[in-house]
Amino acid sequence: MSDVLAITEHRQxxxxxxxxxxxxAGSELAEAAGGDLHLGVIGGDVDAFADAVNLEGVDTIHxxxxxxxxxxxxxxxxxxxxxxxxxxxxxxxxxxxxxMDYAPAVAGKxxxxxxxxxxxxxxxxxxxxxxxxxxxxVETTVDVDSDEAIVTTRPAEWTPTEADxxxxxEAFDADIDESAVGSTVTGFEEAAGGDVDLSESEFIVxxxxxxxxxxxxxxVEALAETVGADLGSxxxxxxxxxxxxxxxxxxxGKVVTPDxxxxxxxxxxVQHVAGMKGADTxxxxxxxxxAPIFDIADYGAVGDLFDVVPAxxxxxxxxxx
Amino acid sequence: MKVLVTVKEVAEPEDDFQISGLEIDEKFLxxxxxxxxxxxxxxxxxxxxxxxxxxxxxxxxxxPERSEETIRMALAKGADRAVRVWDDAFEAGExxxxxxxxxxxxxxxxxxxxxxxxxxVQADDDSIGGTGVALADELGFQWAAVVNAFEYDxxxxxxxxxxxxxxxxxxxxxxxxxxxxxIQTGINEPRYASLRGxxxxxxxxxxxxxxxxxxxxxxxxxxxxxxxxMYEPETEADTEYIEGSADEMAEGIAEILRKKGVAE
Lengths: 321, 264
Ligand SMILES: Cc1cc2nc3c(=O)[nH]c(=O)nc-3n(C[C@H](O)[C@H](O)[C@H](O)COP(=O)(O)OP(=O)(O)OC[C@H]3O[C@@H](n4cnc5c(N)ncnc54)[C@H](O)[C@@H]3O)c2cc1C
Ligand SMILES: Nc1ncnc2c1ncn2[C@@H]1O[C@H](COP(=O)(O)O)[C@@H](O)[C@H]1O
Description:
Chain A has helices at about 20-35, 45-50, 70-85, 95-110, 215-225, 235-240, 270-275, 295, 305-315, and strands at about 5, 10, 15, 35-40, 60-65, 90-95, 115-125, 125-135, 140-145, 150-155, 170, 185-190, 205, 230-235, 260-265, 280-285, 300.
């Protein structure tokens, strides 16, 4: 019998979706391991958050009333103490940017192995984790031969639990060593807006590293203009300064939900997919038949964008540059 | 003042590859410097160029002899020297536990005694995304993960960083050195290695070290975490493929766009 402890996440007063997802992952795992599911709610309006995550499958919610926003020094200490106090042997932390900022430190402090970015969990006497490698081209099964383990769970892989529960809520008095708090969050900034808000777009032509050179961008710009779509892109083009940040689709860019999304020369990394999988229809053009983008595309064309895009422009009566 | 940068040679499978056993056969792999580490090297080299106080930028890698070619790219771009750790104990396969890997990198850091350490956010091949923070914990350093803006005040030893969160929101954080920063792509513009840089890199040191040289033994990298299966993922979507020539593909796509009513 193994108990599971899962940690929720919030930002700027809002509980984040991963909190509901980690409840699903946690309750499935707790059931398989024959144990209870404990939830940790740390910082912010803990009572309101605890109320919101009092969901089906949760046995006990532990609130730690320390700080307003995420601070990795407080989280690391609080989670370490919760793990000990609850007697849990399995710890789940969402694999978010903040999860990445403290899960390995908790693992180090507890001296418990950590497996990151899980997409599936199994328990059969021991923990079995499914995770990807090589930009989602390969899946692996990872066994953890240890009684205790920490797993970070990929966002949007588990269906969020919405059904209400009847967990008991307990305030946990964490003993935070303030002298160990060496980082101070001083605020938040929003990446600048721009000429277009892709989250409102109905039709997006999106381009990735397959475009190779900045000069080639005019080709997809011509396509977007000819078909009347907004131009989006994957991250590397924005990193290179070829396109402004407001064009970036993905985890750290825009989440878009157009009727049609054409992904051209985009491999389909998880952080890109996070921003566009809600599109009604996804069309992918890529030279690599094993590109992960084809796993989520409705329509696929295995071809060279430098041939397909000009032909498509012509198809709509435009002129390729 | 010294800056340490961790760099990894990552493997990328070709479009057509095969898995044999628990790995992709080497003949289907191409090797390159991890994209995130390229940005980390650039950040360190810029810091040195802008501050006389920064005496040295040292690159450290855990990798086999083959990786020297890749590590030399970091030297060609301005790192002063490199340390390469390898040992028979690593031959068994990739160390998947970031804290095990961090123990090795920490042993090098303890010898080098840097004020700042830059790592990448993640390695492109196994995408663990945990080594930097694990390293900070191992050393008792402060840290910040997923940093996309970095400013350092040498006098006060305080770094002012932006952490790139989800959805275009950035957290602004102050971090006291000594500290580890996991560097996000886009933070700077990594330079191309100049011919001169490439030539100079040939004579820069890449010091090989075994676990024993670092005062460690095999137990340092022992971990209960191991890969037991590797396969190509089954696709969940029933993707409809549009076959034929480029013109035929364009026709097929055009038809879909018209049917969906987004283009005429
Ligand atoms: C914390 C974090 C946040 C991130 N946030 C984002 C984000 O918001 N958005 C985002 O996009 N990424 C994000 N990333 C980066 C992500 O992991 C990938 O690195 C990135 O999405 C890859 O972009 P790409 O598909 O354009 O490039 P690649 O992965 O290099 O793919 C290029 C593709 O083009 C194809 N191609 C090449 N030539 C041609 C041709 N002639 N014709 C057709 N196809 C061709 C190739 O087969 C390949 O599939 C994030 C990463 C991290 C760690
Ligand atoms: N074998 C290695 N040698 C040197 N640095 C590494 C190694 N593996 C990971 N790192 C560093 O840790 C970062 C994150 O990698 P990972 O946690 O493996 O995804 C990388 O960008 C590197 O800077």
